[in-house]
User: Fold these one by one.
Assistant:
Number 1:
Amino acid sequence: MERGEKQTQMSHLHGHGIAAPPILLAIGGFDPSCGAGVAADLKTFAAHGCYGIAAITSLTVQNTQGVEAVHHTPSAELREQLEVLTKDSEIAAVKIGMLGNRANAVVVGEFLDAHTFAHVVHDPVIRSSSDAELLDTTGVKYLATELLKRSSVITPNVPEAEALTGIAIKDLSAMEAAARKLVEMGAKAVIVKGGHMERAIDLVFDGKDVHALSGDKVKMENTHGTGCTFASAIAAHLAVGRSLVEAATLAKAYVVKAIEKAYPVGRGRVPLDHFYRMKIEPLARGTHELTQHGLHPAAEPAAH
Ligand code: PLP
C-alpha cells in the first residue's frame, strides 16, 4: 500500500473531522532546563499552531547556568527514532539543531537522503554560549562538507559562520561574504544572525538576493535558546507556505518579543517566553466562564 493511501485510511479510522495542523520534526539535543534545544523547538512550534515531534541526538546535563555534560544518543537509536516517526506522520518541515557528534550528524545526513522534505531548517549549533562543545570537530567538518547541502536554509550565528567558512566577521559586509561562501559550499540559503554584533542585523541570502533584516538589539543580553527558537519559528512559517524572507522577518519579531517578555526560571540565563501571546489576563469584571467555549466577556454577544 502506498504511504498516502495508508495515511488516508488511518485518518478515516481514527479521525474525527478535525484537520491536523502542520506536523514539524525537531532533531536536536535535550536541555532539561527547557530553554534551548528540542524543548524550545516544540514550544515554538506549538506557539505557531503546529504539532511538534522530536528525535533526540544528545541528552545534555544542563540548567540555566550552563551545560555540565552531554550524553549522545547511540546512532542506531537515533536512526530508529527518526524512522519510527517518519513512517507514521506526514512531516511538513524538519528543524535540525544540536547534533552532538559526527556519528549522529551522519545519521541525519542519511535520513535527509532517504526522504524528501519540503523544508529543512538547520541551525548549525557548534558551541553553547556557556562554551560547551555541542558538535565535535569531525562533526563540524561533516556539517560543512555534507550536511549543509541537504538543508533548505542554514541559520548560523556569527561564531558559527566564522567556524564554517574561516572568514573573520567584524561587520555586515563580512557577514555577507560568509553567507556567499556558505552558498558556494553548497547551502541553498543562509541566514547569518547578527545577535553577536553591535547592531542585531540578520542577513538573509537565498543564493540570489541579499536582504538585511534590521532590528533593535534587545537590552537583555542574558538569554538562552534564541537560536533554537528563531530557526523553529522559521520552519513553522515555511511549513504554511511563507517565503524565506517573510518567515525570517516574522521569526525575528517573535524572538524579540519572546526575549522582552522573558522571566527568570533559575539562577542563570533567562529562557524566552515562547507563549507570551497566550498570557491569561486577570478576569475582567463581569466575565463568566462558559464551560464549552472557554472564557468570554459577558458583555459581548457570543460570536458563534
Ligand atoms: N543545549 C542544547 C540542547 C542546544 O541545542 C543549545 C543550542 O542550540 C544549547 C544548549 C545552547 O544554547 P545557548 O547557546 O542559547 O545557551
Note: The longest helix spans residues 244-260.
Number 2:
Amino acid sequence: MSDFSDRPVPASAADAAALPAWRIDQNALNRMLDAGAARHWRVEVVDETGSTNADLTQACRAATWDEDDVRVRVAYRQTAGRGRQGRPWQGQAGLTFSVAMPLALPPARLSGLSLAVGLAVAEALEQCDAALGARIGLKWPNDLQIDGRKLAGILIESVPAGPQRLWAVIGIGLNLVRDARMEAALGRALAGVAEAMTPFDAQRDPTRILGAVLERLACMRTRFVADGFAPLAQAWSARDAYRDEPVRLLHDGAVLAEGVARGVDAEGHLLLETAAGLERIASGEVSLRGAGA
Ligand code: ATP
Ligand code: BTN
C-alpha cells in the first residue's frame, strides 16, 4: 500500500473539480424504490440543515419506535456535518444523507453494523457502475476508498428504544467528485465517484446512486437483524484494502497499536497481528492507517 493517501494534491490536479449543481429526481427515486425492499421508506430531501444525523437522532428521540418506519433525510448542504470522532464533515462535493433504521436488537448486537453498511454502499456503487465498483476498497471499520483516498465516510449513532430495540442513525457522506479545494483544506488526497465512473452524469447519477444504496441497505438490514455481521464477513474481506498490510491504529494522533492487518472476525473486529500475538480490535474511536502513512 502506497503512502499516497496522506499526500495533499495540488489544486490543479486534472481530475479535481467542483461539483456542478445537481438535484435528486424524486420521481425517478420513487420508481427505483417502488419495486424493492426500501419501498416503504420515507425519503425527505432538504436544501440545507445542520446535520442530517443530528436531525434524525433528535427525531428518533421524540418518536415511537416502529419497526416499519424507516426515515431517510438527504441534504444538499450541511452547515455542521459531523464525522467520526467529533470531526467535521465537508459535504460540498458529494451526497450527504442519513437513514434512521429501527432495529429489533440490543446495543451489543450492533457490532459489525458499520462494516455491513460500508459493504452495502460499495456493492450499490458496483451495481451502478462495474468499473467504479472494481476500484473501491474498504478500510476498517467503515470507510470506502479508491487507491487509498477516502471516497465515503459513515457515521452511525444509536438511539435506544427499549431492551431489544433501538434506532441506528446511519449517516453517509459520499464524495461525488474529487474536490481540489477540499483536498487543500483537509491536507488530504480524496476520491470521488466521478473519477472512476465513465461518464459521470451529475444530473442523473446521484439519484441512481442514492436509490441503489437505499435498496442495498434495506436488504442488509434484514440479514443483519437475523444473523449479524458473520455472513457478510467474507464479502467484506474480499474488498479489504489493507489485508495483510502493515498498519497502525491511531487515537487522537497517538499510535495505539502496530501490526499486520489480518482481516476481520465474525463480529467485525479487526484482527491485528502484533509482536504480542493476534489482537481483536473493536472499532470505537480508533483510525487505521497504512504503516507508511
Ligand atoms: P477514519 O478515522 O474515519 O477511518 P481517516 O481519518 O482515516 O478516517 P482520512 O482519509 O485519513 O480518513 O482523512 C480524511 C479526514 O478528513 C478525516 O478526518 C475525515 O473525517 C475528514 N473529512 C471531512 N470531510 C471529508 C470528505 N468530504 N471526504 C473525506 N474526508 C473528509
Ligand atoms: C467519517 O468518515 O468521519 C464519517 C462521515 C459521515 C458524514 C455523513 S454526511 C451525512 C451524515 N450527516 C452528518 O452530519 N454526518 C453524516
Note: The longest strand covers residues 149-162.
Number 3:
Amino acid sequence: MTLVYSEIMVRYGELSTKGKNRMRFINKLKRNIQDVLSIYPEVHVTADRDRCHVFLNGQDYAPVAESLKQIFGIQAFNPVYRLSKDVAVLEKAVQEIMTGLYKEGLTFKVAAKRADHSFELDSRELNHALGDAVFRALPSIQAQMKKPDVTLKVEIRDEAAYISHEEIKGAGGLPVGTSGKGMLMLSGGIDSPVAGYLALKRGVDIEAVHFASPPYTSPGALKKAHDLTRKLTKFGGNIQFIEVPFTEIQEEIKEKAPEAYLMTLTRRFMMRITDRIREERNGLVIINGESLGQVASQTLESMQAINAVTNTPIIRPVVTMDKLEIIDIAEKIDTFNISIQPFEDCCTIFAPDRPKTNPKIKNAEQYERRMDVEGLVERAVAGIMITEITPQAENDDVEDLIEDLL
Ligand code: ATP
Ligand code: MG
C-alpha cells in the first residue's frame, strides 16, 4: 500500500492562554485558515476546542503544509494518515512509514491511544504489536522511550484509526482579527508591507489604504500595491484594499505650498484621510511604515508634524529597524521583489528635491489655510474604491493574460 496523508491536525498557539475568549479565537483562526486554503478547493476545514482539522480530500499535502506554516495563531501541526481499524493494516502502515524514514541509528517508539474501547487491543498491546511489526521490517532499528527520533502516534477512534509521526512548527503569533482592526497605510515601498506583516503577527486585522494619483501614478503602481496586499493575505486571510484618489490634493498642495513643505503637507493629508476612513470602518489604529532617519522626511520633527492631525494611536512596527533588517523581513515574506519594481508612487513623483527636515506644525497649518482642507478630505474619502484581495491571484492572472495577448 502507499500511504497518503489524509488530514492535518492543527494545534492552537498563544490563544490557549486566553480563557474565556477561546471560542472566539478559535473561530477566527478557523476562518483565516479557510480563507488562506481557499486556493485548494478540495480542502475542508473544521475546528473544535482543542484542534483544528484540515481534511485534504485528495489534495497534495506539501503545498497545504507550506500555506499552514505561514498562518498566525498556529503553534504546530501534524499530518496524519487515516486507516481502517484493522491490526494488520496498522502493522503494514508502521512498517512502511519506518522503512521510508530509516537511516542507521534511528530510534523510535510507538505511542498508541485507544479511544474506542471496543477495539481488540488495548493501548499497551497495540504498542507491542506495532513495535514488533517495525522490528520485523527493520531488525537493526532501536526502540527508545525517552526522546526517540520518531514517535509513531497511533489513535484508535470510533470512526477510524489515525497515525502521525511528524510535527511541524507553525508561525506562532495571534490569529489575525483577534486584536481588532487597523488601517495599514500601504505604499508600493519596502517598509509598509513589512509593517503590515508585523501588525498581522500580533493579531491585528488590517485594511490596506493606498493613495494613488493618476495619471501621475501608473496602473502598474496600483497593481504593485494589490500584489503586495495579496502577499499579506497568506498570514491570515482576505484583506480589504482601499484605493484613495489623491490627484486633486497633490495638485492643490503643489500649487499652494512651498516646495520644502510638499512632503509634510502630503503626509498630513494622507493621515487625515486614513483616519477618516478608519473612523467610518470601525478601525482602532493606524499602521504605517515610517522608520527613523532613512530619508529627510523621517525625522522626529517630521513625525511630529505629520502626527499632529490626529489623536488616533499610530503603530509604526519598523520605526527602530534599520533598512537591512527591514529588507530581511521583506525577503522572508516575499514582498521585496515586488517592492523594488520601478513603478513610482505618488510621493516619489511629487517629492521635492530638498524636503524640510525640521518642519514646523505652525507653518504647515499656515499653508493649509490657503486650501479647503475639509472639502479636499471629504472628496477623497467619498471617492474611495474598495476591493477584497484574496490569496487567489485569479483575476489578476486573467488581466495579465489579456494584457499579454494585446
Ligand atoms: P515605504 O517603503 O513603505 O514606502 P518609505 O521608507 O518609502 O516607506 P515614506 O515614503 O516616507 O517611507 O513613507 C512613509 C510611510 O507613509 C509609508 O511606509 C506608508 O505607510 C505611508 N505612505 C507613503 N506613501 C503612501 C501611499 N502612496 N499610500 C499609502 N501610504 C503611503
Ligand atoms: Mg515610500
Note: The chain has two domains: 7-169, 181-404.
Number 4:
Amino acid sequence: MRVLVLGGDGFCGWPTALHFSARGHEVVIVDNLVRRATDGELGVQSLTPIRSLDERLDAWRELTGREIEFRNLNVARDYEALEELLRTERPDAVVHFAEQRAAPYSMKSRHHKRYTVDNNVNATNNLLCAMVEAAPDAHLLHLGTMGVYGYGKARGLRVPEGYVEATLRSGGAEADIEMLYPPDPGSIYHMTKCLDQQLFQFYAKNDGLKITDLHQGIVWGTSTPETDMDERLINRFDYDGDYGTVLNRFLMQAAIGHPLTVHGTGGQTRAFIHIRDTVRCIELAALSPPKRGDRVRIMNQMTECHRVRDLAALVSTRTGVPVEHLDNPRKEAPENDLDVENAGLIGLGLNPTFLSEGLMHEVIAVAQRYADRCDRNRIVCTSRWVQDVAGAAAQQAAE
Ligand code: NAD
Ligand code: USQ
C-alpha cells in the first residue's frame, strides 16, 4: 500500500508511520511540525529527547534501508499543495492525525479555542475536498475520539460503534431510524471531532468517499518495537498539564516522586488503548477498506475502561507515591460508568493489550531515564474550562 500519514511527526503518527514502513508499505509523512512549535509556546519539551524529523528519517533509512518521505505542509491552510500531493502520490490510504489534540490546550483562552476549531475543521474539510478532486478511490482513516459520545451519559447503555437505533417522534407520528450516536463533547477539542463526523457523513453520502473513523480512547505507553530500535527513533512523551494524558502522567509522576494529580474525586471512567495497539488497529483497518458508497465505517479503538482514581490507586500501591486530589479544572461529570463496544477491530484481528504491571513499569523506566528533563512546574494542569470555578461547581451541583 501507498500510505500518506498526515500528522506523522506526532505521538501516534510517528510510530504508525514506522509500523507501516516496517511492513513494506510505502509511506509519506505530511506534517507542518506545529506540535514542536507548541512545545516552544508552552515552554515545555517532550520528556523523551525526540530528534528532528530529518534525523528520525535518516536513522530509519540507516537501520532498515527503508525510505519514508516527508512533506512539510499545513493541511488546514495549504489546500492547493495538498491536492497536488494527492494527485502525484496516488495513495491507497490516507491516515489523518493532523489535528490539535489536547482538550486542556483547546480551553486555555479564546485564541486556543479558535485555533483548535480553525485548524481541525479546516484540515479535515480540506482533506475531504482534495480527495474528491484528486484521490476519490483512496481510503481515509481518521483518528477520532471516544469523547464524541460523552462517556456513558445514557446509563446502562453500551456505547455503540458510531450508530444507534432510535425512534423519532414528531407531529404525532414516529419512525425508527439509525443515526449517529448523539454527540456530547466535553471540550472545544472534542467538539471539533463531532464536527469532523458530520463532514464525513456528507462526503461519504455525496461523493462516495471511503471513510473509516476510529474513535480512539486515551493512548498510553510510549514505545513500539520500531521506536525501540534506536534512541534516534524515540517517540514523544507528553507529561505536562496540557498535553500529558492521565495514565502516562501518573506513571511519569510516580517515576519522579510527584504526588499523583487526580482531578476531583477521580470518578471519571475513560477508555484506554496502548500505543502498540493503536498502530496495529490502524494497519488492520487500512487493510480492509470499506467500498465506495458504503456509509462511514466507525470503530471504537480502545481495549479497556478504567476509573481515574483506580488507576491512581494502582500506581500508588505499586510505587508508594501518594495520591493528591486536586480541584478539577474541567467541567465534567465527577463520576461516570462506561461500557464500550469494540467488536469492529477485534473482528479485524486485534488481539488486545491490557494494562499490566510489566507495561506500566516499562513506561516508568522510560520516565526515570529522562527524569532530569522534567520541569516540575509544568505538571499540574492550569487550563480551566470556566474561569468562575466556584460558580461552575455550584451549577454542576444543581444539575
Ligand atoms: P500530536 O499532537 O502528538 O500529533 C499531531 C501531529 O499533527 C503533530 O505532529 C502536528 O505537528 C501535526 N499537525 C497538527 N495540525 C496540522 C496541520 N494543520 N497540518 C499538518 N500537520 C498538523 O497528537 P497525537 O497524540 O499523535 O494524536 C493524533 C490524533 O489522534 C489526533 O487527531 C487525536 O485527536 C487522536 N487521538 C489521540 C489520542 C491520544 O491519547 N494521544 C487519543 C484519541 C485520539
Ligand atoms: N485527569 C486527572 N488527572 C490528570 C489528568 C487528567 O484526573 O493529571 C482526568 C481528566 O480530568 C479526565 C481524564 O483524566 O477526566 C482524562 O483526561 P486526559 O487528559 O487523559 O484525556 P482527554 O482530555 O480526554 O484527552 C485524551 C487525548 C485526546 C483524546 C482523548 C480520548 O488528549 O486527544 O481524544 O484522550 S477520550 O478521553 O476517550 O475522549
Note: The chain has a mean pLDDT of 96.
